[in-house]
Amino acid sequence: MRDLRVAVIGAGMAGIASVIKLREAGIDDVTVFEKADEVGGTWRENTYPGIACDVPSHLYSYSFAPNADWSHTFSPGDEIQAYFQRVARNEGVYARVRFGEEVTSLRYGDGRWELTTSSGHRDAFDVVVAATGVLHHPNIPDVPGLERFDGASFHSARWDHDVPLDGRRVGVIGTGSSAVQITTALVDRVARLDLYQRTPQWIMPVDNTPYDEAQRHAFRDDPALMRQARDGLGRAFADHFANAVIDADSPAMALIEDVCRAHLDTVADPELRERLRPDYRAACKRLIASGDFYDAIQRPNASLVTERIEQIELAGVRTADGELHELDVLVLATGFRSDRFLRPIDVEGRDGIRLDEVWAERPSAHVALTVPGFPNLFLLNGPNGPVGNFSLIDVAELQLDYTIQLLDLLRGGAESVEPTTEAAEAFEQARVEATKGTVWVTGCRSWYLDDRGIPAAWPWSIDHFRDVMQAPDLSQYQIAGAPVGADT
Ligand code: NAP
Question: Are 321 and 327 in contact (CB under 8 A)?
């Protein structure tokens, strides 16, 4: 077997899993390049008040590292970050990470990727695994005058913990998952909270039950219980949510809509209730999970501002009706640039093909993982993958299992493996066709939709994803310098 040198970009959830699963497969020469000074990715960067994961914690855990000590059904962000740090420490991942090294370019030639970092470090690898995340680059809204605001202003993913909040006037722009969590966490601490809503959202009520010590003890005592909990949550999540959103006409989808409508009906003030009512179908945008948002927005010091933001001024936000909303702090909970996969890394593949050119219109990858012309490059949670429908941890683990099978070809003597253009195009065509039955195309604006209005997402079930990831169909791959016996 040939020894492979593997570079992993990013030490977040998928990067940590890469080191562990590659080692388990016998691939030990792995270097992780991380631009920050700590592991954790999303959970290192998003530290805003109220942050939690809307995938239940026992499901949002690695299959190989169950955690008996989750405090809640949906545990808070700092606990999740501590979990990733702990797993990374216990599994010796830290020793593999070059912190403070931002990868700036990748160039492929003669079966190797030459990798360069911002510090000028250069090295060559047989394989690159990009674990760079999906929702990573903050979307800064194009509202005029943002720079003129005299108070503190920051994006939800760049929270400035030095800015005092208690007793102050805080504005939050956006009504996505981040804004909803921030609002519920802050409303009782601040003098006034203005929530600037461009588009109302459907909210699924969820009960965030804490686990008590007896339950944690039982999980510790019998890890099989945790596996059962994980499997049960996975099944329930798939049946009641993931399989519903890909079939807009399904009874499960109708049930989600009924639950969301009934939840909205709990808002007492009819005028406020109607301003909170979306004019599109539930889950068309990424569904928000919150059991206490409607309570928060009905507090006397909370105000839902639905007038269009005209501009930001020295003292606050001026809305189109002429009113100036004076503020001390302005939070931009305005989401992420989900089309920025891998960029700004400058990637040059085989024969000088540039990723920026291949992706000039939009990013795309064969089975959300590999790109024609870019051999031995694997994009975990890559373009058009199952983002938002399932636990991304499951997705990354399944993709790694599939990747490792392709790496076995390289270890067996092949020089390179990449998808054929025909296979990638056929996949993309089938994917686009399948999106037509999803709830994401029923008439809303969302970060799921690409520049054509087509959902950049996996439009099939998790079971289908598992099937596809079970084993690569080698007829879809071009294998150079193939080992004897490989079906090219
Ligand atoms: P998001 O869902 O993309 O929401 C961004 C919000 O900002 C939207 O309400 C959007 O309004 C608004 N916005 C953007 N530009 C604006 C502008 N120029 N003027 C006014 N409003 C503007 O972002 P997010 O809340 O950060 O969540 C992103 C994703 O991260 C979620 O969908 C979820 O997958 C994940 N997430 C999950 C959790 C969790 O697990 N609980 C928590 C946070 C995030 P429009 O709707 O009108 O575009």
Answer: no
Atom number of ligand 1 nearest to Cα 46: 43
Bond preceding residue 141 cis, omega within 30 of 0: no
pLDDT of residue 485: 53
**What are 392-443's pLDDT values in tens digits?**
999 999 999 999 999 999 999 999 999 999 999 999 999 999 999 999 999 9
CA 287 – ligand 1 centroid, Å: 11
Report in angstroms the alpha-carbon separations of 137 from 7, 117, 319, 367: 22, 19, 27, 23
Please state, in angstroms and rounded to a whole number, the distance separating the CA atoms of residues 334 and 159.
13
**Residue 349 near residue 374, CB atoms below 8 Å:** yes
Please give the DSSP secondary-structure letter assigned to residue 240: I
Q: Given phi > 0 = left and psi -120 to 50 = alpha, else beta, which region is 136?
A: alpha
CA-based nearest residue to 404, from 468, 472, 349, 350: 472
The answer, as to whether pTM is greater than 0.85, is yes
Lining residues, ligand 1, CB within 6 Å? 52-54, 135, 141-143, 156, 173-179, 181, 198-199, 286, 309, 333-336, 388, 445, 447
Residues 11-70: tens digit of each pLDDT: 999 999 999 999 999 999 999 999 999 999 999 999 999 999 989 999 999 999 999 999
- Residue 122 structure tokens: 């250069």
Ordered DSSP codes for 36-61: SSSS-THHHH---TT-B-SS-TTTSS
Q: Provide the pLDDT for residue 341.
A: 86
Segment (H or E) for 204: strand 203-204
Going by CA atoms, what residue is nearest to atom 2 of ligand 1?
Answer: 176
According to DSSP, the residues that pair with 480 across neighbouring strands are: 416
The closest-lying atom of ligand 1 relative to the alpha carbon of residue 141 is 18
- β-pairing, 329-332 with 152-155? parallel
What is the SS3 assignment for 33?
strand
The upper half-sphere exposure of residue 171, i.e. CA atoms within 13 Å in the direction of its Cβ, equals 28
Greater pLDDT, 261 or 133: 261
* Single-letter code of the amino acid located at 46: N
Query: In this structure, which residue's CA is closest to atom 34 in ligand 1?
Result: 388
- Report which secondary-structure segment, H or E, holds 97: strand 97-99
End-to-end, the C-alpha distance of the chain in Å comes to 19
Task: From 136, 137, 177, 389, give the residue whose CB has the most ligand 1 atoms within 8 Å, as the site to mutate.
Answer: 177
* Centroid of ligand 1 to alpha carbon of 339 (angstroms): 14
> Read out DSSP for 272-303?
HHHHT--SS-TTSSPPEE-SSHHHHHTSTTEE
Helices H / strands E in the chain, number of each: 14, 21
Residue with tokens 């309570």: 295
For a pocket test of ligand 1, which of 47, 198, 310, 395 has the largest count of ligand atoms closer than 8 A to its C-beta? 198
Distance from Cα 77 to the centre of ligand 1, integer Å: 17
